[in-house]
Amino acid sequence: MTEKTKPPASQATALANDSYVVQLIAARNPETIERYKQQHPQLSPQLLTIDKNGEAWQVLILGTFSSYQAAQAAVAAITPPLSSQPWIRPIAPIRQALEAQ
């Protein structure tokens, strides 16, 4: 598995646009994020706050990865498996949202 980076906000903006994140959940309500974290204590997620259409959104990510395959391997390694499939997505849109803040 490829190394995850921390802290996500500062390093996410430093990563190449061809990197990937594993997004677990995104919500405007911080309580939703906290509930998710309590329901999945086996994870060590990282929290990003981004601006989307003038509203603050919290994005919980498993980490950042140098390739799609590395992100897939990280998702496959989650035990017990999650009830909903995380979203493996390019980091570029998240980087743009962080840089715009």
Automatic annotation (TrEMBL):
> Which InterPro entries does this UniProt record tie to the protein?
SPOR-like_dom, SPOR-like_sf
Task: Kindly give the PROSITE patterns that the UniProt entry links to this protein.
Answer: SPOR
Molecular-function annotations in GO: peptidoglycan binding
Give residue ranges for domain SPOR: 14-91
Reading the lineage from the top rank, the first entry is Bacteria
Protein's name in the database: SPOR domain-containing protein
- The organism encoding this protein is Oceanicoccus sagamiensis
